[in-house]
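task queued by scheduler; priority normal; single chain, no ligands, no partner chains; default sampling; output format set to structure tokens
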Amino acid sequence: MAFTLRSVKVPPNSASLEEARHRVFDFFRAACRSLPSVMEIYNLQDVATVSQLRSTIASEIRKNSHVTDPKVIDMLLFKAMEELGNIAEHAKQRHHIIGQYVVGRQGLVQELGTKDQGISNFLKNFYTTNY
């Protein structure tokens, strides 16, 4: 697992937008390759599949698809590599991974469904801001 993460280093600066884009694709590939071991480390088989986590990673990358500055892309890529490294080194606990990547920010509100018919607007707003 560690050798996979070492192969994708983020250099200080990308020369162009195309180079930064290729680095993002390399990071995505490395993250997808590390998913089976992450699933094993955190015992996530009962709450998510590899394809669900892969789509979560893709959606996190797509959130920043509007960024066109290579230096900003490098900074975001560095942060993503740090996050992946922390997850791979087991620096997070299982409930952190489930809360951030399996349930997500809107997951708890979606699970309530029709149960929240009598809940006030204050509580609905509270549930959406605090996952």
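post-processing summary
- The mean pLDDT is 83.
- The CA atoms of residues 17 and 68 lie 7 Å apart.
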